[in-house]
Amino acid sequence: MDVTAPNDESFSIEVILSEGGKTAPCCPHGPTLLFEKVRKGGEKGRKFYACSACRDRKDCNFFQWEDEKVSEARLLAREAENQSKRPPFTQQEYCNQFRKFASLPVEEKKFCQDCQILLLPGEHEAHVSHRSMAVSAAQLRRPSVLLRPLDNKKSNAQYLFTDRSAHFLLDTLVALGYRKVLCVGTPRLQELIKLRNLEQNHEPMKSLLLDIDFRYAQFYSQDEFCLYNMFNHHFFDGEASAVLQAFLTECDGQKVVMVVDPPFGGLVKPLANSFSLISQTWRKLQSSDCSNADMPMIWIFPYFFESRILECLPSFTMLDYQVDYDNHPLYKHGKTGRKQSPVRLFTNISARDVVLPKEEGYRFCSVCQRFVFSLNKHCAKCNVCPSKDGREWKHCSTCEKCVKPSWKHCQSCGCCALPDHPCGHGQEKEGCFNCGSLEHKRKACPLKDTHRISSHRSNAKSGGKNVSHHPLLKSKAKRKSGAARRAKKMAALSK
Ligand code: SAH
Ligand code: ZN
Ligand code: ZN
Ligand code: ZN
Ligand code: ZN
Prior knowledge:
Blueprint: E1 11-16, E2 26-27, E3 30-31, E4 33-39, E5 44-50, E6 63-65, H1 72-84, H2 91-102, E7 110-112, E8 117-119, E9 132-134, H3 137-140, H4 143-146, H5 163-175, E10 178-184, H6 187-198, E11 206-211, E12 225-229, E13 234-235, H7 240-248, E14 255-260, H8 268-285, E15 297-302, H9 306-312, E16 317-319, E17 343-347, E18 362-365, E19 370-373, E20 394-396, E21 401-403, E22 408-410, E23 415-417, H10 471-479, H11 482-493
Parallel strand pairs: 10-11, 10-14, 11-12, 14-15
Antiparallel strand pairs: 1-4, 2-3, 4-5, 5-6, 7-8, 7-9, 12-13, 15-17, 16-17, 18-19, 20-21, 22-23
S-adenosyl-L-homocysteine (SAH) is lined by residues 53, 156, 158-161, 185-189, 211-213, 228-231, 261, 263.
């Protein structure tokens, strides 16, 4: 019996991105990623391919050892499975259907809530026993309101921007002079851009949505939506990469920017790789004078991924702006004032130019040359505005850096820590098992209930250790006997 605990921290799972030349096998989500189990001592394990998009076996159970010989029969079965998971229509067909739908009289415009599709008159019959609703022209323009947000805990939970955050983003892009917005996993932003275009009093903006949720395909034309996987830069429709190319071409000085809000459970490295590929495509399409420029991007992600993101994309900076979500159980904009969201903007746009709203408590720090949250006071000793979480941090002269307000310097550990930290347990800093943050343990994880990060453990500071709850590990964990599991649980509770 394999009793590898899911939080056995003696190894990590690393993604290997450049194993030049070899083509990865495909799962329904496009080319898989190559992973490698690395033990603490550096000893490497057998490499394997697994789904790029799904962190849970239940969602995609693709698994193949790198050196495995796959039988013809299995290849055929795999191909059939991949085919069966494809959307039923091409983008062209979706677009034609949408045109028909839009021209229907009001009383014939129906949306099936069970199937999450718009129904043309001929289809009403087949859905009579389903819950359906009438769709107004206004509702048709807001697919992100009409569609039920996916709540698949591990891979694809959809968290939609509050109006406050969505408008902030759009206003910021407008102010910076962008005219084309590549919306990657940001359907609500795309929607807002199209709504804004309906108002006559300003220059229209173009937008293209790249998303893996094909329900959105129903509402857009071919040059507005591409089914796309941001973890392997895969377009499900062969012609779609041409759509992206056309979009990235800046004619008549129309500047393009990308805004991406990936699922927080996503691995940073493959995401950064895809975004770099988009940037490369953009660069090739530029006139010669900016051959080494990067495409402007905003990546929305929790602040405790800062070091990992900067590791992959060193030209990015994290901004203090707190992004919040409508349907997020914890970070809703409540009547009693919003709880502090851990989600921030990472961008290669000059921080000085991204004006954060004064009325929400942001100010400009002239030393740091960026807008910061009001409680983020500039520390003369560190010479930065140090706070990451929105609270006021304080300087520890022994550690020679600013730390969280709740931390105290501990003589025996020789560093600052929470007053109730397991003292004397050495320097071995083990972050939160859920999200990888060193600031808290899993029990106190602000994202625990959302499971948005539950799949990826990143050790924010050491950078080197990184255990993801990979399908493989998951399956092993499941194989653990009930008794072993209970014993472990009891041990944890009695701490
Ligand atoms: N805040 C955004 C939604 C973010 S939720 C908004 O309000 O517009 C994450 C989004 O990424 C969802 O739209 C989801 O469908 C999409 N997504 C999840 N996994 C993806 C993948 N592998 N590739 C592309 N898009 C993905
Ligand atoms: Zn898959
Ligand atoms: Zn400062
Ligand atoms: Zn300081
Ligand atoms: Zn201590």
